[in-house]
Design a protein that fits this description.
The complex is a heterodimer of chains A (91) and B (200). Chain A is built from 1 helix and 6 strands, in the order βββαβββ. With 91 residues, chain A is mainly beta. Chain A has one domain: Folate-binding fold, CATH 3.30.2270.10. Chain A has a 4-stranded antiparallel beta sheet with strand order 3-4-5-6, with no helix packed on it. In chain A, strands 1-2 form a two-stranded antiparallel ribbon. The longest helix of chain A is centred in the middle third of the chain and has 9 residues. The two termini of chain A are 23 Å apart. In chain A, 16% of the residues are buried. Chain B has 2 domains: 105 residues, Gyrase A, domain 2 (2-Layer Sandwich); 78 residues, Alpha-Beta Plaits (2-Layer Sandwich). Chain B has a 7-stranded mixed beta sheet with strand order 1-12-2-8-11-10-9. In chain B, a hairpin with a 2-residue loop joins strand 5 and strand 6. Chain B is built from 4 helices and 12 strands, in the order E-E-E-H-E-E-E-H-E-E-H-E-E-E-H-E. The longest helix of chain B is centred in the first third of the chain and has 12 residues. Classes of the chains: A mainly beta (91), B alpha+beta (200). Chains A and B meet through loops of A and strand 9 of B. The complex binds zinc ion. The site of zinc ion (ZN) has 7 residues of chain A, from loops. The site of zinc ion has 7 residues of chain A, from loops.
Chain lengths: 91, 200
Amino acid sequence: MHRIDCPWCGVRDEAEFGYRGDATVRRPAADGDADAFYAFVYDRTNPKGWHVEWWQHVAGCRQWLKVVRHTVTHEIRTVAKAGDDVRAPSP
Amino acid sequence: MSAPERLSPFGPEAKPGRHGAAGGTPVSITERRVDIVQVTAGREAEAPFADIVKDATGLSLPPAHQAAFSGEAMVVWVQPSGWLMIKPRGDEGALAKALAGVAGDAVAVVDQSHGKAVLRLSGARARDVLAKGCRVDLHPRAFLTGSAATTTVDHITITVVQVDAIPTYDLILPANFAEAFLEWLLMSAAEFGCEVRPPT
Ligand SMILES: [Zn+2]
């Protein structure tokens, strides 16, 4: 069981959260071509190591959060608000 | 034609009476029949809306993880810039209408009076009853009168508000899970004994 330190609610069990995907992808400009939107929706790097992810505190404050999680060890290093600039540490 | 009589979302289990162990120090469980309106303020709208609420109800919008009380009325923080306004049941839709009338365009007002239900759990062992299923630390060093937290109990998302030091908790839950939650609560309370009281 992960323990996730919600910036609004404090440390809560993973069961209160929903995983919402890769937080590093950027939406193409509105006039972007089909390939750009295909990549935005489907292409993922699937890194082995640190990853910045969206999680939502569904059964709590319902806010979207940026979580830095290690995909091998599942260690969670950072939990930030959605608007914060969060980067994955180097491996 | 008059409107049909409104049924309790807690179902037949909510019938007043004694449950679980006899004697001891029973906890009490009471359905609170209230109106509940969720308000969510846009960032810029929060300060003016706080003034409006203060003028209209005498209540200050509580900060994060807090509830404010005034008589039978209660305002509970549930998320950033979001609160539940709770009052004893009045005319259908009247509370939401009153709030929407003064709130301004940048505040979302959603009537949850049929969507949510409230149970009051009180007694010397109420903390033990709730703690069996609650992941939030309810110890008085962490959770006091006026504290509020939204979490899951028995897989049901509930908002826990501590009302006094007995302790008494108001548990705000989705109405469609009310019966299931009450079953869990009665089981959890069985070892202490439990008095289901008539709704208030
Ligand atoms: Zn939270």
